[in-house]
Write a structure and sequence with these properties.
Blueprint lengths: L9 E5 L8 H14 L4 E5 L6 H16 L7 E4 L6 H19 L4 E5 L6 H7 L4 E6 L10 E4 L4 E5 L1 H15 L6 E9 L5 H17 L2 E7 L2 H7 L19 H16 L5
Parallel strand pairs: 1-4, 1-5, 2-3, 2-4, 5-8, 8-9
Antiparallel strand pairs: 6-7
């Protein structure tokens, strides 16, 4: 791996050791946000077998061709997991080489990870400057971060994902990177206030102090995100002069949520 001081790109890893948390949607929206601001961006699909991010970008390319419209599209790379154990070591080396090349070619590299821990998942984290963990507002999903002692209203032992991120922090520190900007964001969060949601965020706040992550403003569960996927669009595209979408209050709120997350990536001074 290249010396970390030589790198140019800021690497954003979107990760949770659980599927269905909306990692690909966040990856795509952040990529488009940065492209619109004039940054050069590469996206990497480490979940190549499911390929949600790759399909999202493919849909976007087809939409642009079909409608003869120019929209910002990131340079995209996809890695498929090797099933043969003997090939994994070589594939790890190839991945490190390919991502290292991206670091000197782009301002930002956004890596979408699989929902289970495998060698692709591990290699992605080795490059992280910022780690974004989307999580739904479910007490069950909080178990990836820590056990919950609901009787005594306490956070118990760290979960398997929090333990893994601790190992990542130690690895990065040994490589000369003293700080991992770990952000947890509530994603697909219900618009309705409930006791369960309040309890969820109370525990999340406690965990943030224990495990050293920051909590970003939540992203609501909106139909618009699912609808736009089919055309490869994002809420950030909807006011394009050639698209002429009528922006609803929900669309405007969704756009504000994405902007807020992008701005939150920069840690407080």
């Amino acid at each position: 791996m290249n010396d970390i001081s030589e790198k140019k790109a800021h690497v954003i890893v979107i990760s949770n050791e659980k599927g269905g948390t909306g990692k690909s949607t966040i990856s795509m929206h952040l990529a488009i946000k940065l492209l619109q601001e004039g940054f050069s961006v590469a996206t990497v699909d480490m979940d190549g077998r499911q390929g949600s991010l790759s399909k999202y970008i493919e849909n976007r390319q087809k939409f642009c061709e079909r409608n003869r419209i120019s929209l910002p599209i990131p340079a995209h790379y996809k890695f498929m997991p090797q099933d043969n154990y003997e090939l994994i070591a070589a594939d790890r080396g190839n991945i490190r080489h390919q991502i290292s090349k991206m670091l000197s070619s782009f301002d930002a590299v956004i890596i979408d990870t699989p929902g289970n821990k495998n060698y692709l998942f591990e290699e992605a984290h080795r490059f992280a400057d910022t780690l974004i963990t989307p999580i739904s507002d479910s007490l069950i999903d909080l178990n990836v971060l820590a056990d919950i002692d609901n009787v005594n209203n306490k956070v118990g032992q760290p979960g398997h994902y929090a333990n893994y991120i601790w190992e990542v922090k130690k690895f990065l520190a040994a490589e000369g990177k003293a700080y991992l900007n770990w952000i947890v964001v509530g994603n697909k969060v219900s618009s309705f206030k409930s006791k369960n949601r309040q309890v969820f965020f109370d525990y999340l706040e406690k965990m943030s102090k224990l495990y050293g992550f920051r909590i970003a403003d939540s992203i609501k569960d909106r139909v618009i995100y699912r609808e736009l996927f089919l055309e490869g669009l994002t809420v950030l595209d909807m006011q394009h002069e050639m698209l002429r979408y009528k922006m609803s209050v929900s669309h405007i709120a969704a756009k504000r949520e994405i902007r807020s997350l992008a701005e939150f990536i920069c840690p407080d001074e």
